[in-house]
Amino acid sequence: MALSKLDNLYRQVVLDHAMHPHHHGSLKRADHQMEIRNPTCGDVLNVEVALKDGKVSEIAFSGSGCTISQASASMMTDEVIGKTPAQISQMVETFSEMVIGNPPADYEKLLGDAAILEGVAKFPARIKCATLAWKAVYQAVGNENGEASAGIMRHEQL
């Protein structure tokens, strides 16, 4: 496929997720919640998660932000359903490495459709926008040790 066609596909997928985000809104019952802010550009995301049997059974996000942060949040919500906090921790680490231009060998398999955001590495000013939702879900459900945070965090604290 020609490079211009790949760029077009990338743009279309990102725009579609930003304009028609998946899992946008709030949950009636959430076990975990995290609001996270990117003071650099003003993006604010609230992620709510419900766990069942140690896995994400439901997830929703709300807030405002640029096209990249909204699209990334939409893709993240699709990919973490059914995952454990430990699996999410691995996904967040992989996603973070990918958007800075160091994708691990298995990143596409691990991240699913969110791997399309690999192109963010070409735009360093957008890396925080892309990682915002991923850092929020990581903080909401806890890291690989099961330690969850609660409340509001600024992105530069992560």
UniProtKB/TrEMBL annotation:
Residues 10-129 form the NIF system FeS cluster assembly NifU N-terminal domain. One of its GO terms (biological process) is iron-sulfur cluster assembly. One of its GO terms (molecular function) is iron ion binding. It comes from the Bacteria. It holds the Pfam family NifU_N. Transmembrane segments: none annotated. Signal peptide: none annotated. Belongs to the NifU family. This is NIF system FeS cluster assembly NifU N-terminal domain-containing protein.
